[in-house]
User: Fold Carbohydrate ABC transporter permease from Ktedonosporobacter rubrisoli.
Amino acid sequence: MQKERRRRFLQRLPGYSLWYLVLTVGAFLSLFPYLLVLLTSFKPANQLFSGEPWSLPTVFTLQSYSDVLTQYNFPGYIAHTLLYAGFATLGQLVFGTFAAYAFARIEFPGREILFWLYLATMMVPNIVTLIPMFMLMRAFGWINTYYGLIIPSVLGSPYGIFLMRQFFRTIPQDLESSARIEGATTLQIITHLILPLSRPILATLAIITFVQAWNDFLWPLIVTYSDALKVLTVGVSSFQSMHGAQWNLMMAATFIILGPLLLLFFVFQKQIVRSIHLSGFK
Assistant:
């Protein structure tokens, strides 16, 4: 038996080696840009063009990070982005949960037609609704305000509601029937029965929403113009236009944006892997 296993392993070894080589090359190509960003952010300005971009700095310095955080409004950009992403995530979880439960469990006329019509809006590119949404925010007087920045991303999304609805439909109806026999209300069923059973999908939706909001650029660029409301992506864009030649500052600012997402990945590795499995999100 041992000889047979060893023979099979030796037969498959070339194939395994080839796959590991392909994966190693792919991982290197994926990580190499981040390595360049990190190395450039640690170099003094006079070393940026004195050698190869991937060469190690002769003197490691954090001066670029200090300049970005102290001389510019990056702490404010970080606070605005956290506020924007946090409210967007909370709103998607709250409103998405209630809307998904209504589409999954509550019987009302036209439920399926309304759901599929709402889901069909996923086929419409965001750029198409950008101008109508801007005109609506202007009519409300919410241009360059937190209301205009946050509210459009709070009230659920077709993708999030679809994801939650499909998961809710997998929960046995008998559990809810038993709870109603015991006298539980719909709100109690959602909070004490549905939500505890839906932690994996809630974590999935929270991760997807937070990452998308953190990286969002177009809507914050359109609806805000003052420095007091800029998020990180818009701040880095304007920072690049003003200081495009200072690559060490640009790379430091870029790595500041990546930092929270890297921390999110290391803290919630299991949930992120599960989110990829459940939703195909990358």
